[in-house]
Write a structure and sequence with these properties.
By secondary structure, the protein is an alpha/beta fold. The chain is built from 5 helices and 5 strands, in the order ααβββαβαβα. α2 runs parallel beside α3. The chain starts with 16 loop residues before the first helix and ends with a helix.
Length: about 170
């Protein structure tokens, strides 16, 4: 029941700055936020356990513990965490745990994924952009970050650039 336009497809890990910047510049705003899905994909791209779903060996994540390699996830969101899948598999904007397929809200699923990433040695930074005081988002991002020094809130473009300079 879900169709994804080409602009919404994930870009595998690559060392091609121009392709990555092009992808970012062509993103469009719209819809709700299934924050747990973005968090899951960050984990999948960094975990060698998911290499089988990547298109080629060039896109595979290195093994945990690889010398001179740091695995870092940066999660940036408006933080709504208001879409998940219900027991019938349909997306719903009701952020109520009982409505999701696994009984957890999008925010709860994201925190669980972040806990797993951190346990695997992945350093997690979070950037909340334009949250407008959304306490669920603020709490979710704080719980996901590897520490308070890894959690950023940016209310404008200047603060957003500063967060990424810090990271």
């Amino acid at each position: 029941k879900c169709s994804t336009p080409a602009s919404g497809e994930m870009t595998p890990l690559k060392n091609d700055k121009a392709a990555i910047l092009s992808k970012i510049q062509n993103l469009t705003l719209g819809g709700g936020t299934a924050g747990h899905l973005g968090t899951a994909w960050a984990y999948y791209f960094l975990s060698p356990e998911w290499n089988g779903v990547m298109p080629s060996a060039a896109n595979h994540a290195a093994a945990y513990g690889t010398e001179k390699l740091k695995k870092i996830a940066i999660l940036m969101t408006d933080g709504e965490y208001n879409y998940q899948y219900d027991s019938k598999g349909y997306s719903t904007s009701l952020d109520v745990a009982g409505n999701s397929a696994n009984g957890l809200t999008s925010a709860q699923q994201a925190v669980q994924l972040c806990t797993n990433m951190k346990a695997d040695g992945i350093e997690v930074y979070t950037v909340g952009f334009d949250l407008d005081g959304n306490q669920t988002a603020i709490d979710t991002l704080a719980s996901c970050a590897s520490g308070s020094d890894h959690a950023y809130i940016a209310d404008n473009g200047t603060a957003l650039k500063a967060a990424f300079r810090d990271i």
